[in-house]
Amino acid sequence: MEHKRITVNGLDLAYVEAGEGPLVLMLHGFDTPRLYRYLLPALAEAGYRGVVPTMRGFAPSQVPSDGSMRLPDLIADANGLHEALGGGSDAVLIGHDWGGFTAWGAAAAAPERWAKVVVNDVPPLEFYDRNSADPERIERYVHFYFFQMAIADQLVAADNLAYLDWLWNHWTGTVPGYDSTEDRKAMKEGLNTPERLHLGLELYRQNFPASTFGTPDWEMIRVLDKLPSQPTLYLHGTEDPVVDAETLAELVAMLPPGSDGAMIEGAGHFLLSEKPDEVNERILAFLAR
């Protein structure tokens, strides 16, 4: 496993690489690239070249000079990484959380770059309308609203980023044997300065802006208006309430031939760390088809 750096779209991005073969690019979200610590060596052993970049703005990658954390730029970073890393038409794109939103958009925007797509715990945008007025659903997404406030920069930073500890536990399942301590520590290290923390919050402010969120002028509607044309695997934890088994079946039916999906029993939002053996097995089986 090697730690490297690469310039994409004018940004110096850090990444970890292991293995040789077709490129598999793994994108993280408002969490940590450490979530891929189990999948990366498994892919390398299976004959793939796994690459896990650190998102723009998160340490140790460069802070964008224009402060943009907009989804179109995250998508451009993903497709730019494919180009810069010499990926072929057999490359695979995997995303989780904001990396999932990015994967949906990047695969649809440049289908010639990606042979297969895997998305974890972030369904296509239209599925977020389901039960959106349910008070429990609103409460579950409280950080989307809280992060819009300017004072969130101060409150999230307080007590060694205690809010991020709460948020992680808010979204995880109760999985025996999973200790989130090191994952939460790595997340905080990625947001280790006021500037980086601000950019992390800007993911929500710039992509779910209070003035247009949910209106026809909302940019993400246009950015994510198409699904991938490639076979896609969608995985979701049963303790993450956005998708249930019925919704999953509908989701998979909308995807192109060769696609598949599964609910990971007992896992919450961080299934890559919570249930690594099952997740790795499903992803490797999908890629081998």
Structure description:
With about 290 residues, the chain is an alpha/beta fold. About 40% of the residues lie in helices and about 15% in strands. The chain is built from 12 helices and 8 strands. It has helices spanning about 40-45, 70-85, 100-110, 135-140, 140-145, 150-170, 180-190, 195-205, 220-225, 245-255, 270-275, 275-289, and strands at about 1-10, 10-20, 25, 50-55, 90-95, 115-120, 230-235, 260-265. Strands 1-2-4-3-5-6-7-8 form an 8-stranded mixed beta sheet, with helices on both faces. It is globular and about 45 Å long.
Describe the structure using short key phrases:
289 residues, alpha/beta, eight-stranded mixed sheet, 12 helices, 8 strands
Question: What's this entry about, in short?
Answer:
The protein is an alpha/beta fold and 289 residues long.
Any low-confidence stretches, pLDDT <50, length ≥5? none
Query: Strand content of the residues, in percent?
Result: 15-25%
What spatial form do the alpha-carbon principal axes imply? globular
| Major sheet | 8 strands, mixed
From the N-terminal CA to the C-terminal CA, the straight-line distance is 26 Å
How large is the radius of gyration?
18 Å
Mean pLDDT: 95
Spell the H/E element sequence.
Answer: EEEHEHEHEHHHHHHEHEHH
Helix content: 40-55%
Number of helices: 12
Given helix and strand content, the structural type is alpha/beta
